[in-house]
Amino acid sequence: MTEQNDGTLVSVENMVKYFPLRGHPFRRQYVKAVDGVSFAIRRGETFGLVGESGCGKSTLGRALAALYPLSAGRVLFAGQDIAALQPRELKSLRQKIQVIFQDPSASLNPRVTIGRALEEPFRIHRAGRTAERQERIAFLLERVGLSDYHLSRYPHELSGGQKQRVGIARALALNPELIVCDEAVSALDVSIQAQVLNLLADLQEEFHLTYLFISHNLNVVHHVSNRVGVMYLGKLVEIGSHRDIYARPRHPYTQALISAIPRAEAGGGGRIILTGDVPSPVNPPAGCRFHTRCPRAAPECGEREPLLLPAGEDHYAACHFPGGEPGA
């Protein structure tokens, strides 16, 4: 499976990431953050990943970027198995996969100037001479809407939007191919969110970038994504084009999420209210993990786990009864 054959840049194959819990001396327990997820990201596209808080989105993104070791499964980047790389090869790969984090304040060292923070990727990877680094930093600052004035500033002297622009410039420093945007605009004011989203779109076109865009904001994901994956409790329950996901959702969980989007038109469709709480990722339900809250669950839903199967053209859903009307 290589990128050259079908335009796939990243293939995630049965990704599993568990975190051990402490305080259980007789029986070891795990948080099953990501539990058997498979999908592909095509070169040049924006793949959106949505779901409730705690569903495993950010863990998946960080594992894909090799910030977490996998518990099982594998991630192929341009045909290379990331887990099989030697440390030197992995360090080289990190230049091609970068992350923009949710909290721009937490991702910058408060004791380091912006100029020093932007130099860090070059120092770590020993890339370019001093003059080349400074030229690249000045170019990136201009591209993200900042200026040389900001190089001597400290993070506390910048607004949230400016700090996130610094984070974007730093992610671009080493000419990456894939950028994981982990809730990259959720900490910003709505007006600033629009500016940053437009900036990311412009940069994608200019630098031929591929994005994994993680967010709980369905409107934002609909606006920026080519394809969308929906996660629930560590599982991927639906994948499709952004048009299909929003206009023709097949999984009942996706239908409930879409029904919660505020709509301007009168009537706007009925809201699907899910009952019960999200089960614990330490001890998830058997069968379909959504069956305990599903409005159309049947006995077999609690007995047999559904596979992610075709539900249309380039559209997949993990449901024993896909495509039913909301609330059916």
Structure at a glance:
The protein is α/β, with parallel strands linked by helices. It has helices spanning 3-6, 57-64, 87-93, 114-125, 130-143, 160-172, 190-207, 218-224, 242-247, 252-259; strands spanning 8-21, 29-42, 46-50, 72-77, 80-81, 97-100, 178-182, 210-214, 227-232, 235-241, 309-312, 315-317.
Give an overview in words.
The chain has 328 residues and is of the alpha/beta class. It has ten helices and twelve strands. It has helices at 3-6, 57-64, 87-93, 114-125, 130-143, 160-172, 190-207, 218-224, 242-247, 252-259; strands at 8-21, 29-42, 46-50, 72-77, 80-81, 97-100, 178-182, 210-214, 227-232, 235-241, 309-312, 315-317. The strands form two sheets. The chain has an eight-stranded mixed beta sheet, with helices on both faces. Strands 2-1-4-5 form a four-stranded antiparallel beta sheet. α5 crosses α6. 39% of the residues are buried. The mean pLDDT is 91.
